[in-house]
User: Fold this.
Amino acid sequence: MSYYRNQLENWLKDLDIKADLVYDIGGGQGNVKGRTKSWQVKEYAVLDLPEYNIDIVSNYEIAKADLIFCLEVFEYLIDPITAMGNIYNLLKPGGKAYITFAFVYPHHNELELDSLRYTENGIKRIAERVGLSITNTWYRIDRSGLLQSFYATDGMRTAKEYTNHNVTGFICEVTK
Assistant:
C-alpha cells in the first residue's frame, strides 16, 4: 500500500462516526464501514452500487444524509462543481462530508477516467460556489522530502506565502 493511501487509512482509523444516515460515494471500490475507529450508524448506503440509482441524486428525491464520504473520487470527475453541488443537495442542513482531493499524484487506473488534480484554493472555491464551507483540512504529505527539491531543481517558483509545498493531497471536511 502506498504512503498516500496509508495516510487516508490512518486518518479513517481515528474517526468516531455517529449518524442516522451515511452515504458513501465511491465506496463500491472499498466502503468506509469497518475502516473507522467506531461506527454507530443506523443506515448506510454505498451510492455507486448497482442497487442504487445514482441518477436520483440529481433529482434530489433521496433522503438527506447526516454524513457523506466521497473518498478517492474527485480525480475521476470532469465536472467537480456539479458533483459538489450534488453532495450539497444530499446533505441535511448542518450535515458534513469528508472528501479527498489529489494534488500531486501520477496517472492511475482507470486511466481513461483519471482527470483532475486540485489545489487547496481550488477546493475552497468549488465548495463555496455550491454553498458548502470547509471546516477542516488534513494534508497528505510527501514523506520523501523530494517534492520541494523537484520544484527547485526544475526551476518552478513556489508561492512564498504558501507553506505547504510538500502536500500531495487533501482530506477535507465540508459542512452545509
Q: What stands out?
A: The beta strands are 16-25, 38-46, 65-70, 91-102, 133-141, 167-175. The first strand starts at residue 16 and ends at 25. The two ends are 33 Å apart (CA to CA). The mean pLDDT is 92.
